Amino acid sequence: MARDLATLPGSFNEILAWLNSDRDVAGQMYVQLRHDLARIFTWNRCSDPEGLTDEVFDRVSRKVHQLRQTFSGDPRLFFYGVARNLIKEESKKIRTQVSLEHIDLAANESAENHNDPRLMRAECLELCLQKIGSDKRELILDYYAKEKQAKIEHRAEIARRFGTSLEVLRVRIYRIRSKLERCIESCLDAKADGE
Known about the structure:
Blueprint: H1 11-19, H2 23-43, H3 49-70, H4 75-93, H5 103-107, H6 117-131, H7 134-143, H8 148-162, H9 166-194
Helix pairs in contact: 1-2, 1-3, 2-3, 2-4, 3-4, 6-9
């Protein structure tokens, strides 16, 4: 999930102040909140729990100044509400999302499974990956190559290789992924019309 780079510089401090007036307590709450949000996204089988957690904080940071004045109650509840909305947004994207793993296995499926929706999505993904160009294809495949802690370190290494920040890398990946999703959706629609 791409992050909005227009986040205000002081918003992190404002989020901490909103969570608790004691900065040490607020820091602990912040770390626990990030952990809880990532678990919620994992439980809901979201594709990028860490990225979605970042997106929650980005969205809240854009409104935190106003929220501190108007929101009453536990601020964490607002974060959970934003997370719930992101989960709904993610579920709408499921139709166009295809795993980048095991692409070669899908190509070896027999002709009798040609109408299998997973196989159709995999075929469309492979076709769309060919359309985006080798640089973008290598970047997105490399970006999604690892899992868990290795994924975090690997993505940081990719950002260093490109001489950019993780945020800029995420935006670049988001744009490539959006283009792929639109291409896959068009391909699936064409296959559905051709039946």
